[in-house]
Amino acid sequence: MNPIGFEATEGQDNTETKVSLGSKGNPKDDDNLFFNNGVDRIDYILAYEPGTGEEETAKKERRKVFERELEKEGLKLEHEDKTKSKSGKVCFVKIHAPWEVLTKYAELMHMHMPLTENDIKIDFTSCLSMCPTPFDLDKDIMKQDDDYFTAPFSRTRMHQFMIKDRNSFFSNAQRSRIVYEILSRATFEEDKEQKKKFGIKKMISNESYDAAYPLHDGKYLSEHSLLTRGKMNDRHELYEIWARWRMWYKFQPLNHIRDYFGEKIGIYFAWLGYYTTMLIPAAIVGLICFIYGCATVFQDIPTSELCDKAKSGNLTMCPLCDKRCSYWKLEDSCSYSRATYLFDNPATVFFACFMALWASFFHELWKRKQVELEYEWDIADFEQEEEIPRPEFEAQVQRVRKNPITKKEEPYVPVWSKCIRYFTTASIIFFSLCVVLGAVFGVIVYRIIITAVLYSSEEFLLRSRSTLVASGTAACINLVIILILNQLYLKIGLVLTNMEQHRTETEWEDAFTFKMFLFQFVNYYSSIFYIAFFKGRFIGRPGAYDYNLFGYRQEECDPAGCLIELCLQMAIIMVGKQAYGNFKEILLPKIMVWFRSRSAEKDTSDLTIYTRWEQDYNLSEMPQLGLFDEYLEMVIQYGFVTIFVAAFPLAPLFALLNNIFEIRIDAYKFVTTWKRPLAARAQDIGIWYGILTGITAIAIVTNAVIIAFTSEFIPRMVYKYFYSNQTLQYYDFSLSIFNVTDFQQKSIPDDKKLAIFGNVTTCRYRDFRNPPGSSEYEFTVVFWHILAARLAFIVVFENLTVFLTWLIMYLVPDMPYAVKLQMLREKYLVKEAHFTSETIKQNSGEEHHAKQPLY
After folding, report:
1. Which positions fall inside the Anoctamin transmembrane domain (predicted)?
2. Cα separation, 559 vs 333, whole angstroms
3. Measured distance CA(727)–CA(297) in Å, rounded
4. CB atoms < 10 A from the CB of 551, how many?
5. For residue 164, what are the CA distances in angstroms to 2, 97, 658?
6. pLDDT tens sequence across 752-798
7. For position 6, what pLDDT does the model report?
8. Handedness of CA 450, 454, 455, 461 (dihedral sign)
9. How far apart are CA 285 and CA 361, in angstroms?
10. What is the average pLDDT across 628-635?
11. Is the pLDDT confidence value at 503 over 60?
12. How confident is the model at residue 143, as a pLDDT?
């Protein structure tokens, strides 16, 4: 199903009608979108800045051959000399695709075109969405598009399609996609081995052309509102109803985005909007849990006992580092413990369970939404039916074999070659991941050293905040390392993916995406995993510390646990990454556009028109990897929201606030700052869906383990229900006793600091071990009791979550009934159209000859 609006009235013939000269056809208009004759629409632009010397001679010859090949394919070209440009430096080649070229390639590319009007009027809206809300777009502005059943275009059955006007039958996005297909296959020279070199990508890489792009529809700014004068063009409409900051709370016009930028970009914004909407309940529940922690922090009995000198606060704690660290009182950890309770309270367990179910609902409901979009946008079978081999694949691969389906010769990569290439890439990936872990290891060593230095300070403020200071600065250093390594991995990922020689663009993107996500997953999350699951687990005990880390004693957690450090690490990396990304996405492109525009306006002639194609030339180029960076940013964020949400309940709220701005930032970039990208097609969000599913599965395990082992929830529950009747205070219960005479020589504190505490004979440390005397320092029964409770919690949490997830998948069908009904109706009409066509041919005595694809 393909909503397409037609401008023509009934009764027009099937010839290309001449467009009247005016604002669109006048060569002197700075928003002109036509050739100088005012008839032929500009479908693509090639731009270059001519130079001098032998190198320019070679470029000129390549351009000449390339453009001759384009004309052989039927395209019309028109040249604009550099003297006609505002800057006086750039030459432009305007390209127009005539009707014959459009119909030929529409058939080869299996484009779905309108066959008949949709006679099944079933809306996909729910009862809730029918209620008017302030989030809906103004219906007086948003005109409803016509709705059609579609079928793959065929020139032999052209009379069956709804061709009311040839000028508007193919949308601008479809026209540009057809022209790009020709540009990507046109040759420009042959090398010494008689191999043809072709493709606009290579023409740009060898600097024969500087840019190739379709034109925007015109200006995006107008002195008049949409309500008073209507839209000037589609770009203006998208800016007013979508890209402006004041529209941050409005729903997105997905069909308009798809019509202007193509299905691939449309699906990205549909997914981003759906994800952002689903974050609203998660953010609300997370905020409620945090407020609960704030409201009950002073009512928490263990924390109150820790902050009281007359109770647990007077306990003498063992030194947290060797020599320079002295004994300290438990009340020094008062503020740290209260901060920990804000995120480590009974509501946290409920929120972790809620987020596990939320992730399952998100996946299942998005699957339904995606099915609707696939049908409505005619992309359900795109990857199987329409996608063609990459030009780079056909150029690189020399071996050919007969395709068992098409019976045609085509390039292929043998299995043994694939194995060698994949083994090579796997080895390099493994080495790269080791580099990441090495960087994390360096940050750990830094944290150990800086913590020891701060704990030995005479200043109480530095000593009491040493853990937070060390964790905060280490997280900032870790963030800088992450951003640097990201740039390195980007280049490595491109080289490795190209080396694997993938056949189609989808296969290439999936392979590159998996590599980069694996890099990024380890890069962003490794330090967080260390704090959550390893810090303080393998330090040994007083008198038997582990010194395997370059002779350093390993880090310990505060008596209140490591959860606040985990929260701090997450907050710095998550918020810092988003702030850096927004800075790069907003400010840098605007600076570049301003600089290039200022450069173009240096022309002193008042007669030179600043044409639409030159205005677009001065816009920034969409990144080479397209939407990869946008998806990756959101998926990494999704990991923060789900994998470690038990440690940071405010993560969904921060993600929601960021995404509200992210949608408008991305919209603003696409509409105002970037050249109009190619309107590429895609069936879905690709491998990202599988990655999101994997993250959800990991999140169930990690949240269970964080609550069981990193949080103090399980020990507190065991104490509350089994040991509180023994008149023990919680920290008497959870801290073991150590005889200071049993210290290792290198662990004994500096004698100068002992006067503060007097004659210390015993100190406390975080563990469940026997006191000195009997079964010295062996694990107590309480330790095994708590370990059993922790393991039981993990088993119950995971199995309950998995069961509820399965129940959701069972109860929520993947395909809505309305979509299924319309798909069956469309298949029936397509079959009838084929039968009708064959009957007409047989009656007229014509023979049917099937068109064979050229590739």
Report:
1. 257-826
2. 8
3. 22
4. 7
5. 15, 19, 45
6. 555 556 678 889 988 888 888 767 788 889 999 999 999 999 999 88
7. 28
8. negative
9. 15
10. 86
11. yes
12. 65
Cβ atoms 218, 639 nearer than 8 A: no
**Residue-level pLDDT at 178:** 92
What would the mean pLDDT of 253-272 be, rounded to a whole number?
Answer: 90
Task: State pLDDT tens for residues 449-460.
Answer: 777 677 666 666
pLDDT (0 to 100) of residue 22: 36
CA distances from 338 to 135, 289, 344 (A): 40, 15, 10
DSSP 707-740: IIIISSHHHHHHIIIIIGGGT--HHHHHEEEEEG
Q: CA dist 222 to 229, 590, 610, Å?
A: 10, 20, 17
The whole-number average pLDDT for the span 325-329 is 81
Q: CA 324 to CA 344: how far, in whole Å?
A: 31
* Cα separations in angstroms, 208 against 43, 64, 613: 20, 10, 18
DSSP label of 674: B
What does the pLDDT average to over 426-447?
Answer: 84
CA-to-CA distance for 258 and 13, rounded, in angstroms? 29
State the average pLDDT for the chain.
79
Report which of 497, 494, 506, 501 is spatially closest to residue 388, judged by C-alpha positions: 506
The sign of the CA dihedral 88, 93, 96, 102 is negative
* Range from 266-275, 433-442, 581-590 that averages highest in pLDDT: 266-275
Q: Supply 421's token pair.
A: 């290439």
Of 106, 141, 96, the C-alpha closest to 234 is: 141
134 has a pLDDT exceeding 80: no
Kindly report, residue by residue over 611-626, the tens digit of the pLDDT.
889 989 988 888 777 7
- Within a 10 A sphere around the Cβ of 817, how many other Cβ atoms? 9
CA angle 209, 210, 216 (to 5 degrees): 110
Name residue, tokens 């020599």.
323
Q: Which residues pair with 401 in a beta bridge?
A: 410
Nearest of 184, 207, 212 to residue 44 by alpha carbon:
212
Q: Where are the domains of the chain?
A: 44-258, 259-714
Contact 644, 706 (CB under 8 A): yes
Chain-centroid distance of CA 25 in Å reads 40
pLDDT at 15: 36
Check: CB of residue 820 under 8 Å from CB of residue 380. no
CA–CA dist 723, 719 (Å, integer): 5
CA angle 627, 632, 637 (to 5 degrees): 135
Give the whole-angstrom CA distance, residue 530 versus residue 478: 13
**Tokens 């590319």 appear where?**
109
Least confident of 180-189, 365-374, 403-412, 760-769: 403-412
Residue 489 has pLDDT above 50, yes or no: yes
799 exposure class (CB count in 10 Å sphere: 0-12, 13-18, 19+): exposed
- The C-alpha atoms of residue 252 and residue 276 are separated, in whole angstroms, by 12
Locate 785 and state its tokens. 């009791």
| CA–CA gap between residue 669 and residue 462 (Å, rounded) | 45
Contact 704, 647 (CB under 8 A): no
Are 263 and 321 spatial neighbours (Cβ–Cβ below 8 Å)? no
